[in-house]
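[Automated response] Your request has been received and processed.

Submitted sequence:
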Amino acid sequence: MQQGVLVDSLERKNAFMTDNTIESLKHIIEKFISISDLSRGKASKVIQDVVKDESQYIIIKNNKPEAVILSLNEYMHLVEIKEKMNEMKEDIELIRLVNERMKNYDIENTMSQDEILKRYNIKEEEIDELIDFVELE
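Generated structure:
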């Protein structure tokens, strides 16, 4: 990727941009690397930057962003965030389900645990024995 050309072009067209904006754009553009540059020996330097500075690189293929290189720590952090978000999504769905069921809740149509045990002839001891074999998700 011709990063130098992009940076030079930005500097010439900076009439409407602040210095901070130009510097931010330069920083982003410097993190673009073409797949052909990687195959020409720049991979080692990119990996060193990623490990040392926790930099990220955007891999360009056919002038389109295709992949990202980032440190293992950052990757693990993103995986953790994704897992937490999935858990939150499940929690939200459970809350929605509870709210929906509460709309139709009628205490007259409920039974206590003791009533259920009596009706189906189940002893507390049987439940205690089975509890070790039941897996809750």
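Summary generated for your ticket: Residues 74-130 form one domain. The first helix runs from residue 3 to 12.
If you did not submit this request, please reply to this message.
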